[in-house]
Amino acid sequence: MALGKDYVHQQCSIARALEVIGERWTLLVVRDAFYGVRRYSDFLVHLGAPRAVLATRLQSLVDAGVLERRRYQESPPRDEYVLTGRGVALWPVVRSLAAWGGEELPGAVPLRRFHHADCGTETGPYGECPACRLPVPPADIEMRPGPGLDQDPADPVSRALLRPRRLLVPLEQTDA
After folding, report:
1. pTM greater than the 0.85 cutoff
2. Exposed end of the chain (fewer CB within 10 Å): N or C?
3. With 60 as the cut, is the pLDDT of residue 106 above it?
4. Which of 114, 103, 155 is CA-nearest to residue 137?
């Protein structure tokens, strides 16, 4: 028996969330948006997703209120994609999946480390600052390369993400 394409008959909040973010490329788009990626071309080069898939995923995230499309250039018209409040609320999910993937999978080495920007302390397992004893919102987190990160990546977005940077700060074209 084939699996269904949706979870409409599930009475479960996890199933409802998967309707929005449960596809592989979708959650990676959200991850990149936290890292400061905003432009279609940067998502494309960093993710390696097929163009049609990326366009569909970006549109579905806009439709779901996770991303907002903002015009940054009029001629020719070009838009960027920015996390909304609903999108920023996904940070605990993204952070937890990153931690689990870096700590629980055989042979995995952390690729990125997340630090409280105010004091420099690495955040704890639930995104809290062990030194300050406070939850740290995404805008106050500095992302730093971990020991498993490729130090000589091929694409310009990955190279820009080798430098410590705050989450949600736009990746500028001079960075990528």
Report:
1. yes
2. N
3. yes
4. 114
